[in-house]
Amino acid sequence: MSIARNLKIIKNELPEQVKLVAVSKTHPIESILEAYNAGHKIFGENKVQELVQKYEQLPKDIEWHMIGHLQTNKVKFIAPFVSLIHSVDSLKLLKEINKEAIKNNRTINVLLEIFIANEETKFGLDQEEALEILSSDEFKTLNNINVSGIMGMATYTDNINIIKSEFEKLYDIFTLLKTKYFSKNHEFKDVSMGMSSDFKIAIDSGSTIIRIGSIIFGEREYYK
Ligand SMILES: *Cc1c(COP(=O)(O)O)cnc(C)c1O
Questions:
Q1: Rounded to two decimals, what is the model's pTM?
Q2: Would you say residue 14 has pLDDT above 60?
Q3: Which amino acid residue places its CA nearest to atom 1 of ligand 1?
């Protein structure tokens, strides 16, 4: 099956308000161009070096999303062009992104990554840590970042009930944060959840951004 056709099938199933990030990590420039030429403009990568290389080689109207764990010392490489960072998991990282955003004379959109899975390996904040960051005085001084929502990953399992309860928990946390800190801010609107194996459950649970790799580009050599 071609990439263009895969994209078309997925897009036909998406409600209008759900944004599709095509996760192109490990896949070559040619594959991204195939999706681009089919009209898709939003791509996600999980490694800074790969993201920067692809940005440099591909058309400049692509919207690039950083979806992987981000180290503070690498923020500077993506700050000039990144559209949305999904994986912010500390105040320290927020401060660094704000600093680099100022240097680049722009505002950078970010999501707070929330830990919802019962696997040890997943990054992210718990609800308390997210509340702590958002209520801190320091957070209020970060004028060059826009927190537009939250992101999370469900446990890697076949058990639909576990996945569903984790996505519902993420949505509840989104509602709580919105009510408490962003009630007058219409920019706080996104819940990034759902991958190839679980995006339908995610959409049923209120997802606004899904991040899809394998069912567009094919299997990767390695997972994540
Ligand atoms: C790789 C990755 C995805 C996409 O995974 P698929 O199973 O290939 O759809 C989504 N989100 C994150 C954070 C990833 O690292």
A1: 0.96
A2: yes
A3: 224
